[in-house]
Design goal:
The chain contains two helices and seven strands. By secondary structure, it is of the alpha+beta class. Strands 3-2-5-6 form a four-stranded antiparallel beta sheet, with no helix packed on it. Strands 4-1-7 form a three-stranded mixed beta sheet, with no helix packed on it.
Protein backbone atom coordinates (compact mmCIF):
# COMPACT_ATOMS: atom_id res chain seq x y z
CA UNK A 1 0.00 0.00 0.00
CA UNK A 2 1.25 3.47 -0.85
CA UNK A 3 2.00 5.70 2.13
CA UNK A 4 0.42 8.94 0.93
CA UNK A 5 1.12 10.63 4.27
CA UNK A 6 4.87 10.49 3.80
CA UNK A 7 4.66 11.09 0.04
CA UNK A 8 2.87 14.38 0.56
CA UNK A 9 4.80 15.28 3.73
CA UNK A 10 1.63 16.43 5.41
CA UNK A 11 2.18 18.55 8.49
CA UNK A 12 0.47 17.71 11.73
CA UNK A 13 -1.03 21.18 11.90
CA UNK A 14 -3.36 20.57 8.95
CA UNK A 15 -6.90 19.61 9.73
CA UNK A 16 -8.13 16.12 8.92
CA UNK A 17 -10.30 17.60 6.18
CA UNK A 18 -7.31 19.36 4.57
CA UNK A 19 -5.25 16.17 4.75
CA UNK A 20 -8.09 14.17 3.24
CA UNK A 21 -8.53 16.66 0.38
CA UNK A 22 -4.76 16.74 -0.31
CA UNK A 23 -4.59 12.95 -0.42
CA UNK A 24 -7.68 12.63 -2.65
CA UNK A 25 -6.33 15.23 -5.08
CA UNK A 26 -3.03 13.38 -5.21
CA UNK A 27 -4.73 10.02 -5.80
CA UNK A 28 -7.02 11.42 -8.51
CA UNK A 29 -4.06 12.97 -10.36
CA UNK A 30 -2.14 9.73 -10.06
CA UNK A 31 -5.07 7.73 -11.45
CA UNK A 32 -5.55 10.18 -14.34
CA UNK A 33 -1.85 9.97 -15.20
CA UNK A 34 -1.96 6.16 -15.17
CA UNK A 35 -4.57 5.96 -17.92
CA UNK A 36 -3.13 4.56 -21.14
CA UNK A 37 -2.22 6.89 -23.98
CA UNK A 38 -4.34 6.98 -27.09
CA UNK A 39 -4.31 3.71 -28.95
CA UNK A 40 -1.68 3.65 -31.68
CA UNK A 41 -3.11 3.01 -35.11
CA UNK A 42 -1.43 1.97 -38.33
CA UNK A 43 -2.21 2.04 -42.04
CA UNK A 44 -1.56 -1.04 -44.16
CA UNK A 45 -0.88 -0.69 -47.88
CA UNK A 46 -1.54 -4.00 -49.62
CA UNK A 47 -0.43 -4.97 -53.12
CA UNK A 48 -1.93 -8.15 -54.59
CA UNK A 49 -0.22 -9.72 -57.60
CA UNK A 50 -0.14 -13.00 -59.48
CA UNK A 51 2.96 -15.17 -59.82
CA UNK A 52 4.06 -13.21 -62.91
CA UNK A 53 3.89 -9.91 -61.03
CA UNK A 54 0.70 -8.65 -62.66
CA UNK A 55 -1.69 -6.68 -60.47
CA UNK A 56 -4.92 -8.41 -59.45
CA UNK A 57 -7.93 -6.11 -59.37
CA UNK A 58 -11.00 -6.71 -57.21
CA UNK A 59 -9.22 -8.95 -54.71
CA UNK A 60 -10.85 -8.93 -51.28
CA UNK A 61 -8.36 -8.29 -48.47
CA UNK A 62 -9.12 -8.96 -44.79
CA UNK A 63 -6.91 -8.19 -41.80
CA UNK A 64 -8.15 -9.80 -38.62
CA UNK A 65 -7.37 -11.16 -35.20
CA UNK A 66 -10.14 -12.27 -32.85
CA UNK A 67 -12.48 -9.35 -33.53
CA UNK A 68 -14.13 -7.78 -36.53
CA UNK A 69 -11.96 -7.81 -39.66
CA UNK A 70 -10.57 -4.71 -41.33
CA UNK A 71 -11.39 -5.06 -45.01
CA UNK A 72 -10.61 -3.59 -48.39
CA UNK A 73 -10.78 -4.37 -52.11
CA UNK A 74 -7.96 -3.83 -54.57
CA UNK A 75 -8.35 -1.38 -57.43
CA UNK A 76 -7.22 -1.75 -61.02
CA UNK A 77 -3.56 -1.38 -59.96
CA UNK A 78 -3.92 -4.27 -57.48
CA UNK A 79 -3.56 -2.16 -54.38
CA UNK A 80 -5.67 -1.10 -51.43
CA UNK A 81 -5.09 0.81 -48.22
CA UNK A 82 -6.67 -0.17 -44.92
CA UNK A 83 -6.51 2.47 -42.20
CA UNK A 84 -6.89 2.77 -38.42
CA UNK A 85 -5.72 -0.69 -37.39
CA UNK A 86 -4.47 -0.90 -33.79
CA UNK A 87 -0.85 -2.01 -33.39
CA UNK A 88 -0.48 -5.76 -32.95
CA UNK A 89 -0.25 -9.14 -34.64
CA UNK A 90 -2.82 -9.99 -37.31
CA UNK A 91 -3.66 -12.49 -40.02
CA UNK A 92 -4.06 -11.06 -43.51
CA UNK A 93 -5.99 -12.89 -46.22
CA UNK A 94 -6.43 -12.10 -49.91
CA UNK A 95 -9.05 -13.75 -52.14
CA UNK A 96 -9.70 -13.19 -55.85
CA UNK A 97 -11.82 -15.03 -58.39
CA UNK A 98 -9.79 -17.59 -60.32
CA UNK A 99 -6.99 -17.68 -57.73
CA UNK A 100 -6.22 -19.68 -54.61
CA UNK A 101 -6.43 -17.49 -51.52
CA UNK A 102 -3.34 -16.67 -49.49
CA UNK A 103 -2.98 -16.17 -45.74
CA UNK A 104 -0.03 -14.59 -43.94
CA UNK A 105 0.79 -13.12 -40.55
CA UNK A 106 1.44 -9.41 -40.31
CA UNK A 107 2.78 -7.29 -37.48
CA UNK A 108 1.61 -3.68 -37.28
CA UNK A 109 4.17 -1.78 -35.21
CA UNK A 110 4.39 1.52 -37.06
CA UNK A 111 2.12 4.08 -38.69
CA UNK A 112 2.76 2.75 -42.22
CA UNK A 113 3.07 -0.93 -43.15
CA UNK A 114 3.35 -2.29 -46.70
CA UNK A 115 2.82 -5.89 -47.76
CA UNK A 116 2.77 -7.66 -51.10
CA UNK A 117 0.62 -10.77 -51.43
CA UNK A 118 1.08 -13.25 -54.29
CA UNK A 119 -1.90 -15.31 -55.46
CA UNK A 120 -1.54 -18.50 -57.48
CA UNK A 121 -3.99 -19.47 -60.22
CA UNK A 122 -6.52 -22.07 -59.12
CA UNK A 123 -5.51 -25.57 -60.13
CA UNK A 124 -7.91 -27.32 -62.53
CA UNK A 125 -9.65 -30.21 -60.84
CA UNK A 126 -10.24 -31.95 -64.16
CA UNK A 127 -8.63 -35.36 -64.59
Amino acid sequence: MVDYWSKLKLDECWSKKDRFNKIMNYIMNEVENDTPNEEQLGTVSVSVKDEEGKAIANADVSIYDKGEPYEGTTGSAGGCTIRDIPYGEYTIKAVAEGYDFTVETISIESEEVSIELILKLEADDEV
